[in-house]
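Data deposition worksheet. Section B asks for the primary sequence of the deposited chain exactly as it was used as input, without tags or linkers unless they were present during the calculation. Section C holds the resulting structure in token form. Section D is free text for depositor observations; keep each observation to a single sentence. Incomplete worksheets are returned to the depositor.
Section A, Depositor: J.P.
Section B:
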Amino acid sequence: MRRWRLHAIGPKCPVSNIAAQIVHHRQGEHVKNTKADRRSQRTRQLLSDALVALIQEKRYSEITIQDIIDRANIGRSTFYAHYLDKDDLFESYVNHGLDRLREHIRRADHGSAHERIDLTILFEHVHAHHALYNALVKGGSIALVYAKGQDRLRHNIEQHLEDLMPSSHVPPMPISLIAEYVAGTIVHLITWWLDHGMAHTPSEMNEMFVQLVAPGLEEALHLPRELMRPS
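Section C:
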């Protein structure tokens, strides 16, 4: 247990001085923790940036921890203080990206009369980072994005589908199965898009996704068509 050093405080010292010392100590600890958090965030960002850059230069399977720390200019012990291995770093990067996309989609849908399926923001993200995704496809590693983030992606889709349904509605098949199917369709669409030089715009890709998936979701969820298609 930590002991307070109050030897400078005499018996005539007001209690307020003791309280002030405690507050000052806690503020100091908070500042230290904040600085440590910021350093950790910067380190994680440097490692993520290094991995992303390397993926665009060589196959994911060929990238080593040494490659990553050399590119990030970070020591090996620092790397292992944040991640277990290369896969752990990649999974963290993918999950972070999925979380940000989900937040963007949530904000875009906020205030609408109904939560409709619209993945334009997702396709815009892929378009903006096409160099990375092209490298993953050419290197045969695009499946890693789904494999590492499939639980998060499926969970996000499942939650979005649940938001579509009235509280009293019970779909005829498990939502988890539907979410798994939709997640797989998204990955295949993105792969096809990249393989064909991204000739279609993000909006066009979203429209194709809706045309391919919405009819099946209407049947699987037994929901009105206007809820499944963008307005």
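Section D:
The chain has a mean pLDDT of 78.
The chain is about 70% helix and 0% strand.
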